[in-house]
Design a protein that fits this description.
This protein is mainly α. The protein has 19 helices and 8 strands. The radius of gyration is 24 Å and the shape is globular. The model has no long low-confidence stretch (mean pLDDT 92). The chain binds heme C (HEC) (3 copies). Keywords: Cell membrane, Heme, Iron, Membrane, Metal-binding, Repeat, Signal, Transmembrane, Transmembrane helix.
């Protein structure tokens, strides 16, 4: 008797699970958020007038930073995006009819930007940041469409993805979206300035800053409840860019705007994946939009701009380290390996290398990002207006883990106000990731 009840229960649960899975897989719950008027085509004149606005939005959205190879034709795709499940390639979004999106209707384009679904009910992978572009207004999507259709068509075939992405997994993305794609709305606040509202619209939408700066769950879904509080990309810790954290690391509206508009500021230069953001996206945006982003980021919950903290003073144990301590060893290593470029006093050299004094990277709570810079160095990077810095050499093969630990401990205590020593384990963990 008991067994039969048990069996009936199990059968019932299995049936419910299968039905639920079929409902999800059929995409029934994935209603479209595209406005009905998107079905009508836009007149060629309307398309023409929308192009300049579309270009600005495409820059803010870094569409072509991601949809182009570094040297390749604009929009032809092919950029590799590594994920824990395999490599995805960005696709050709030029108006080529065979290989690109030349056959897209206005409504097709809206559906990609708002719902993450390509023609033929093809679920897109969230490497395309549709969870962010979802909040873009229909008018702005029209502008993006007009601009996108105006660039030269490139007959270049898409590359094949690898890993699990070779399997027919697209339909299963329905489960992912069910759990990770909330119907977000534009953050509008009439108590705040037009600039704040514009900044919120860009940061939380097209500019998708949170795709790197927000934590992700185990499904790689963005945790919007902890928006911009810091994340991780390719094993590199991405800093918290909420108002209090930015102000603590010394940013105010002018310096943050300069950082985004040029890639360099008294708080340091952009490097790693942030370099691509400043290089392709924020440095090409209109100054008003960049300022709006800075104002939005630096406005606290109370609606006031967070006040920048003064550069931290050197901790006593770093300023005058006792002989034989790790601090003394770290200071010596800095003088031997780094001071030639970054200065004895951490003052840096204009057009050669950034200052360490006042550098926001040293004030990050997690030392992992700078450990990575020291181990891997940085390539020569070109900043706005052709400004450039030297390349920073990698130190992975010149300094051992204890030396790097002492060195990073010292520079953080000297210029970053960070008291917690860096351990050999923290360095070793990064050494295995040396590129
Ligand atoms: C972080 C990288 C990234 C950014 C930024 C990005 N995309 Fe994408 N996009 C992708 C990837 C990867 C795919 C392919 C996803 C897939 O295969 O499921 C894609 C797919 C697309 C598609 C679908 C093409 C098709 O297969 O039919 C369109 C259209 C598109 N993107 C347009 C844009 C526009 C417009 C922007 C800027 C607002 C943009 N993308 C920004 C990575 C990006
Ligand atoms: C040959 C000159 C050179 C040497 C030697 C050098 N660096 Fe650098 N370093 C640079 C340059 C140039 C950058 C900025 C690269 C960029 O963003 O384009 C940089 C960036 C950095 C950064 C990231 C902060 C920022 O604002 O970009 C840190 C941290 C850093 N260096 C620490 C060190 C340490 C520690 C050493 C010694 C182990 C060292 N550097 C040795 C040239 C050098
Ligand atoms: C592709 C990933 C990625 C995206 C997208 C991204 N960032 Fe970053 N960001 C990083 C990484 C990695 C760092 C750390 C390296 C550095 O400081 O240059 C960083 C650093 C920063 C810093 C410097 C913080 C400090 O204290 O040194 C600021 C400010 C910043 N990002 C703002 C933004 C804004 C605004 C956006 C959206 C327009 C954005 N980021 C989008 C990866 C990203």
């Amino acid at each position: 008797m008991k067994n039969t009840i048990m069996r009936n229960w199990i059968v019932a649960i299995v049936v419910i699970a299968v039905v639920a899975a079929l409902v999800v897989l059929s995409g029934l719950f994935r209603t479209s958020s595209v406005a009905p008027q998107a079905q009508q085509t836009l007149s060629p004149e309307r398309m023409q007038t929308l192009i300049p606005r579309g270009r600005e939005l495409a820059l803010a959205g870094d569409c072509f930073g991601c949809h182009s190879m570094p040297q390749g034709p604009m929009g032809a795709g092919g950029l590799a995006i590594a994920t824990p499940f395999g490599t995805l390639y960005s696709t050709n979004i030029t108006p080529d009819k065979q290989y690109g999106i030349g056959n897209y209707t206005r409504a097709d384009f809206h559906r990609v930007m708002r719902d993450g679904i390509a023609p033929g009910e093809r679920n897109l992978y969230p490497a395309m940041p549709f969870v962010f572009s979802h909040i873009t207004t229909p008018d702005d999507i029209d502008a993006l469409y007009a601009y996108n259709m105006s660039i030269p068509a490139m007959p270049i075939a898409n590359k094949s993805n690898t890993g699990v992405f070779v399997l027919p997994v697209r339909p299963f993305m329905d489960f992912w979206t069910l759990l990770n794609f909330p119907d977000r709305k534009v953050l509008r606040n009439d108590q705040r300035s037009a600039e704040w509202n514009r900044g919120a619209y860009l940061v939380e939408g097209l500019a998708h800053c949170g795709s790197c700066h927000s934590p992700r769950n185990f499904m790689m879904g963005v945790e919007f409840s902890r928006s911009l509080q810091g994340g991780e990309v390719d094993g590199v810790v991405v800093p918290d860019i909420t108002a209090a954290a930015l102000a603590k690391r010394g940013f105010d509206v002018p310096t943050l705007s300069t950082y985004l508009a040029t890639g360099m500021a008294p708080q340091g230069t952009s490097f790693d994946s942030m370099y691509t953001v400043t290089h392709f996206s924020t440095s090409a945006m209109e100054p008003e939009d960049v300022k709006a982003v800075a104002i939005y980021l630096l406005t606290g919950k109370d609606g006031k701009l967070a006040l920048p903290a003064a550069s931290p003073v050197p901790l006593p144990q770093a300023a005058v380290p006792k002989n034989g301590t790790p601090m003394a060893a770290g200071r010596l290593a800095y003088m031997a390996s780094c001071a030639g470029c970054h200065g004895m006093e951490g003052e840096g050299i204009p057009n050669v290398s950034p200052a360490m004094k006042g550098n926001a990277a040293l004030a990050m709570d997690n030392p992992q990002t700078i450990i990575n810079v020291v181990l891997n160095g940085t390539p020569t990077q070109i900043f706005k207006n052709g400004e450039r810095m030297y390349a920073m050499p990698p130190f992975a093969h010149r300094l051992n883990a204890p030396e790097v630990a002492d060195l990073v401990t010292w520079i953080r205590a000297e210029w970053g106000g960070q008291t917690v020593p860096v351990t050999v384990e923290q360095v070793s963990a990064q050494e295995t990731a040396v590129k």
